[in-house]
TrEMBL record:
Keyword terms of this UniProt record: Ligase
SUPFAM superfamilies recorded: Acetyl-CoA synthetase-like
A molecular-function term among this protein's GO annotations: ligase activity
Organism of derivation: Corallococcus carmarthensis
InterPro entries: ANL_N_sf (IPR042099)
Protein name: Long-chain fatty acid--CoA ligase
Length: 571
């Protein structure tokens, strides 16, 4: 099918009314994703820079298309603000030289096409240099920002990397894998051509927080990575050379490298700001013209408190999987002076290549400036499947959004509702926290051995509302001894130390009881049933159950002291 990309870009800038459905070209792109990708690639080539080496459906040279094409423009590829030093910029040419030298060093250490390289870096210069060095060598990268040692061990065991890139002070997080650490001293001599990937080559193995369990590596093919980057760069965000994209507080594992690829492919600048620094002073966010700004509820509330005026923003977007508090968003839009600034819903899954659901980028009427409208992203085949998980198509107008082909991909989780020509984000399949499953098994395992706990279980609770937001409550059983005053702080400290802040439960409920067990393991189904019916609360206050719990505690202590097998607590 022929696609007029110039006309498409004009339509996206003007916006369109979602009542009329997706434009004709958008619907045709679902039917002919290959032809649509070719049309975007031809329009992307542009003037003033070397042509891209990648050819949709044939070959992909990420290092050339992301970096080499733009070195002559003398523009920053990455910009960040550090609390003491202030603004720091990394030009495309500098980034090219650093990555080329690192690739040369790594090649001497055995990194070759297909090698699995785990990048243990936070967002910053080291991450970009290591990522691009891996791409230049044809490696398969994995982003793994520093977490707690237990979470790191679980993910490294699942990944089995060939090499690890990390800074020396991060060695304690790599226990048992120290021998895989790459040495990078900046002394390599830049040379040799960059690697060209085939469409089906796996360019990345990503720990997507949208996948259950989240420590499962998900393959990202070269074709999905490149097509996602060009679609997001040109259409989702409308980036051009020199434009700036920022998304403070957006979860790294869900959104990178997709946002980086989309930005660099278009010769734009990725702006990184740490939320801890913004909480003290949000002024850096206001100092540069932003072509696109991603806003989370946390950033929204921060800007509300500081009464910031965002006159430097040309387009802002939010993740539709976050809690839908329309009143808070509208208050923020009004206070920040964004009534005439385009806004959109954008759901990004880096393991799928980038954005998977988007809405029109136009300006809507005040009552609907925050909405639930989304469309499957242009240029990707998709279908709605029945929520019964049978794999059949949805017989109604509500189903699980599933990208095609779905072979070897994790099952979809987003419920999409079709109302006439419009599509709405309708929540998730199962309980999730802002679209992300909660790693309950990792949390309860990390709490084993806490002196005042005899068992734990995690119970998800729906708060209702349009987005079906969920909270995850940790049930902490203390046996015959009541919980000490500092127990909640101790649990949170242990979870954060061993796993990381993202693993903290939304709430902790203590019960001076013993949980029911099956083959020695806490019976989660029993715990949930007892919690939802109120039985746990009643038993915790009932004198008879308190006496039985005390007796059971003495029996268990006596059995443990004598070396006998500890009996499994009964109901």
């Amino acid at each position: 099918m022929p696609f007029d990309v110039k006309d498409i870009l004009r339509q996206l800038e003007a916006g369109f009314a979602p009542e009329s459905g997706a434009p004709k070209w958008w619907q045709e792109s679902w039917e002919d994703p290959d032809g649509f990708a070719v049309a975007l690639a031809e329009a992307h080539a542009g003037r003033g820079v070397p042509p891209p080496k990648s050819r949709p459906g044939q070959q992909y040279d990420f290092f050339h298309d992301l970096i080499v094409r733009h070195v002559a423009l003398e523009r920053p590829a990455f910009r960040t603000h550090v609390r003491i030093q202030g603004w720091q910029a990394l030009a495309y040419r500098t980034l090219h030289d650093l990555a080329a030298r690192r690739a040369s060093e790594w090649a001497d250490q055995g990194v070759e096409p297909g090698a699995k390289v785990c990048l243990v870096h936070g967002v910053g210069q080291e991450l970009l240099v290591s990522l691009l060095a891996t791409l230049k060598l044809g490696g398969c990268f994995t982003l793994l920002p520093p977490m707690g040692p237990r979470a790191m061990a679980t993910r490294l065991e699942a990944l089995t990397p060939d090499f690890i890139a990390a800074e020396p002070h991060q060695l304690p997080l790599l226990k048992g894998h120290e021998q895989l650490l790459l040495k990078s001293q900046g002394r390599g001599a830049p040379g040799f051509t960059s690697h060209t990937y085939k469409p089906t080559d796996v360019v990345g193995l990503l720990f997507s927080p949208l996948v259950d369990p989240p420590h499962t590596p998900v393959p990202l093919t070269a074709e999905n990575a490149w097509k996602g980057a060009i679609g997001d760069g040109m259409l989702t965000f409308g980036l051009g050379q020199g434009d700036i994209l920022a998304a403070p507080d957006f979860p790294v594992l869900q959104h990178l490298p997709a946002l980086l690829f989309a930005t660099l492919l278009r010769g734009a600048t990725y702006l990184h700001l740490d939320m801890a620094d913004l909480a003290l002073n949000p002024a850096p966010l206001l100092e540069h013209p932003l072509r696109a700004l991603g806003v989370t509820p946390k950033l929204r509330d921060l800007l509300l408190r500081h009464r910031a005026s965002l006159r430097n923003v040309q387009h802002w977007f939010r993740n539709p999987e976050e809690p839908y508090d329309a009143q808070a968003w509208r208050t923020w839009v009004k206070q920040c002076g964004l009534q005439s600034v385009p806004s959109s819903n954008i759901l990004i899954d880096a393991s799928a290549g980038g954005a998977v659901l988007v809405s029109s980028r136009g300006v809507t009427e005040a009552p609907t400036d925050v909405h639930t409208d989304v469309f499957p992203v242009p240029g990707r085949a998709w279908t709605l499947k029945d929520p019964n998980e049978s794999g059949q198509g949805a017989p109604t107008d509500v189903g699980v959004f599933t990208l095609q082909p779905d072979k070897d991909r994790p099952p979809g989780h987003v419920l999409l509702a079709r109302i006439r020509q419009r599509y709405h984000y309708a929540g998730t399949q199962g309980f999730r926290h802002e679209g992300r499953p909660y790693s309950a098994k990792e949390v309860t395992a990390a709490l084993e051995g806490v002196p005042f706990l005899v068992g734990t279980s995690v119970v998800p609770v729906s708060t209702g509302g349009l987005a079906s937001h969920s909270r995850f409550i940790l049930l902490a059983f203390t046996g015959a001894t009541p919980a000490p005053p500092s127990s909640e702080q101790e649990i949170n400290r242990r979870v954060e130390m061993l796993l990381g802040g993202d693993f903290l439960p939304d709430r902790i409920e203590f019960f001076p009881l013993f949980p029911h067990r099956v083959k020695g393991a806490v019976d989660d189904a029993w715990c949930a049933s007892q919690f939802f019916t109120g039985a746990l609360h009643r038993k915790a206050k009932d004198p008879m159950f308190q006496a039985l719990t005390a007796l059971r505690g003495r029996l268990l202590a006596s059995a443990a002291a004598s070396g006998e097998d500890v009996p499994s607590p009964v109901r």
